[in-house]
UniProtKB/TrEMBL annotation:
Pfam families hit by this protein: Flg_bb_rod
UniProtKB keywords: Cell projection, Cilium, Flagellum
The UniProt record lists the keyword Transferase: no
Protein name in the entry: Flagellar basal-body rod protein FlgB
Database matches in NCBIfam families: PRK06003.1
Domain Flagellar basal body rod protein N-terminal stretches: 19-36
Keyword Transport among UniProt keywords: no
Subcellular location: Bacterial flagellum basal body
Organism name: Pseudaminobacter salicylatoxidans
One GO CC term, this protein: bacterial-type flagellum basal body
């Protein structure tokens, strides 16, 4: 019988969500910075496919707040958003929608782990 890796998978997704939320927060913080390019974390599917990903800064000085310890790559989405007159590609509405998506995903992740833990504890008691 294969060991259940749900807790490891949930932990990886939580780390990925933390890095993604940090990138989104950085985008929101730099919404008025001229020339700032939107940063996004590569999809979680790359982690599931066991592809090696590494943190990449799109500009010098990005992600100095401890996020560099994560093993998730950041990609620049400058081509996806319309460039504003300040040559900034951050669209605040998109970043807020991404932040909401991260919150919902984290809540789902936590609920699944909690239910699985409860199920395991019931099987041990019985």
């Amino acid at each position: 019988m294969q060991p259940v890796n749900l807790f490891h998978l949930a932990s990886q997704q939580s780390q990925w969500l933390t890095v993604r939320q940090s990138a989104i927060a950085g985008n929101i913080a730099n919404v008025n910075t001229p020339g700032y390019g939107t940063a996004e974390i590569e999809p979680f599917e790359k982690v599931l496919n066991n592809q090696s990903v590494s943190m990449k800064a799109t500009q010098a000085g990005h992600f100095e707040a401890g996020v560099t310890n994560a093993a998730f790559a950041v990609r620049n989405e400058s081509g996806k958003n319309s460039v504003l007159p300040s040559e900034n590609t951050v669209v605040l509405e998109n970043e807020l929608m991404k932040a909401g998506e991260v919150r919902r995903t984290y809540e789902l992740n936590t609920a699944i782990v909690k239910a699985f833990h409860r199920m395991m504890m019931l099987s041990v008691k019985g």
